[in-house]
């Protein structure tokens, strides 16, 4: 006669955790049925084992421990832990932000590259751009989306490759088109500024999500809206087309370096030159962005995941606020608040 | 580490970021305004920001703004001077002349880069 036990589970930070835990536990021969309840952080086990609940919990924990989950009979004292994680994540994220803004302020990044712009110099400009204030928008977006994707999905590599591939291809192609068509695309200030504001709002939402502000039972009143937003993100992220499209969209995100390179491509008057210059520029920005997405993926799958997600949330929020205020100032809606 | 220490570090970092954002404003007016042949020229250097950030010029005479770039690739190359209806990406190296007409007293002119992180002000 199978018996039913309910255990508390810890470490369930994503929707796919439910499936993973159920898959692993179902493989155990003494387990008849598994039902994970993410909202209450409980697992209901139907078992034929005659062991006492503590022993079953220990045996099953051994199976799912490598994935970062734990079962317990009593509600775990873990409750206190998330509280502490945020206090570790705050200084970590803020330290990163402080370093980033000091780097901007230091003027190290303002060295000039004289003479004609060749693919080689545009590669170097790309390298510089990838740690410049452009990182606030493009990097912040990449970090937040990467963390979000890694949180939901263990097979994130394909999504990242699509995003970065799409980015390289669209920079090269659009660069070529700029060279060919001259002023046809017209780099419109207002358009890029609005796009920048949209990007910063996405960053703010994802940042809050990473911090766990939207997580279960915290905001009861507005959770309906946020759940909708979440499910939209979830639907959007995993399609093949979307990472490509976002990669494509980064061409138009506000970044002085990108815009300068677009003008170079524009004035080149040739498809090949425009193509090569924008491709080399995108290639220069690639190392840092790759580091951001694959770095966040490897952290997200390690035991530091909770700390990583919270720190990333702090960083993304900070960059999002910065990008939002800058974007509003760029549109002339508010007066500029700061001079980096 | 213990929570109190972490909170203190957090507060410290917030102060540091605050200092980064608020410092370096209004670094005095340099000798960047000159009058030649009855026309006032205000020169601004654009590279990693705009310098000087705050200038003071005379109102009531025809004024031109000259923005100098020298291997500028960053945001400051994407200049927008709203009140003069100017929005352009400056050449990487060179001088761009923007006609400001005859500015009125008490109406400062603000220039800002495309992403909004660098700006400058000319007081009349």
Automatic annotation (TrEMBL), chain A:
Xref: InterPro entries: HMA_dom, HMA_dom_sf, UreH-like_TM_dom
Span of domain HMA: 3-68
Pfam families (UniProt xref): DsbD_2, HMA
Superkingdom, natural source: Bacteria
Transmembrane segments: 85-103, 123-147, 168-187, 193-214, 244-265, 271-295, 307-334
Keyword set, alphabetical order: Membrane, Transmembrane, Transmembrane helix
Record GO terms (molecular function): metal ion binding
Protein's UniProt name: Heavy metal transport/detoxification protein
Source organism of the structure: Candidatus Nomurabacteria bacterium GW2011_GWA2_43_15
From TrEMBL, chain B:
Alphabetized InterPro entries for the sequence: Cupredoxin
Origin superkingdom: Bacteria
Descriptive protein name: EfeO-type cupredoxin-like domain-containing protein
Species: Candidatus Nomurabacteria bacterium GW2011_GWF2_43_8
């Amino acid at each position: 006669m199978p018996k039913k036990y309910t255990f508390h589970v810890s470490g369930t930070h994503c929707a796919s955790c439910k499936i993973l835990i159920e898959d692993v536990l179902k493989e155990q021969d003494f387990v008849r049925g598994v039902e994970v309840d993410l909202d209450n952080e409980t697992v209901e086990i139907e078992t034929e084992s005659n062991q006492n609940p503590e022993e079953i919990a220990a045996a099953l924990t051994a199976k799912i421990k490598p994935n970062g989950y734990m079962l317990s009979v009593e509600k775990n004292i873990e409750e206190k832990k998330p509280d502490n994680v945020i206090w570790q994540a705050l200084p970590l994220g803020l330290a990163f932000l402080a370093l980033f803004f000091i780097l901007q302020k230091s003027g190290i990044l303002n060295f000039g590259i004289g003479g004609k712009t060749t693919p080689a110099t545009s590669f170097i400009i790309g390298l510089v751009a990838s740690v410049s204030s452009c990182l606030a928008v493009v990097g912040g977006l990449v970090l937040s989306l990467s963390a979000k994707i890694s949180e939901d999905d263990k097979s994130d590599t394909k999504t990242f490759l699509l995003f970065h591939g799409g980015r390289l291809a669209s920079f090269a192609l659009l660069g070529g088109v700029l060279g060919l068509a001259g002023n046809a695309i017209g780099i419109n200030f207002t358009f890029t500024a609005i796009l920048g504001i949209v990007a910063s709002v996405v960053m703010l939402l994802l940042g809050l999500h990473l911090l766990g502000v939207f997580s279960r039972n915290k905001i009861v009143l507005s959770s309906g809206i946020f759940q909708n937003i979440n499910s939209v993100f979830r639907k959007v992220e995993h399609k093949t087309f979307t990472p490509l499209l976002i990669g494509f969209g980064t061409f138009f995100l506000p970044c002085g370096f990108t815009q300068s390179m677009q003008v170079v491509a524009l004035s080149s008057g040739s498809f090949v030159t425009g193509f090569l210059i924008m491709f080399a520029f995108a290639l220069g920005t690639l190392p840092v962005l790759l580091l951001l997405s694959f770095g966040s993926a490897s952290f997200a799958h390690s035991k530091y995941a909770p700390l990583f997600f919270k720190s990333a949330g702090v960083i993304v929020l900070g960059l999002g606020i910065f990008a939002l205020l800058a974007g509003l100032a760029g549109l002339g809606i508010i007066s500029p608040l700061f001079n980096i | 580490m213990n929570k109190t220490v972490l909170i203190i570090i957090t507060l410290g970092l917030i102060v540091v970021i605050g200092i980064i954002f608020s410092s370096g404003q209004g670094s005095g007016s340099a000798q960047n305004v000159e009058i030649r042949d009855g026309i006032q020229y205000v020169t601004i250097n654009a590279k990693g920001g705009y310098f000087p950030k705050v200038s003071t010029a005379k109102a009531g005479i025809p004024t031109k703004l000259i923005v100098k770039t020298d291997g500028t690739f960053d945001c400051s190359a994407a200049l927008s001077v709203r009140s003069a209806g100017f929005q352009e990406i400056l050449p990487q190296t060179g001088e761009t002349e923007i006609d400001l007409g005859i500015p009125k007293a008490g109406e400062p002119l603000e220039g800002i880069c495309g992403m909004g992180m660098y700006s400058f002000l000319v007081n009349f």
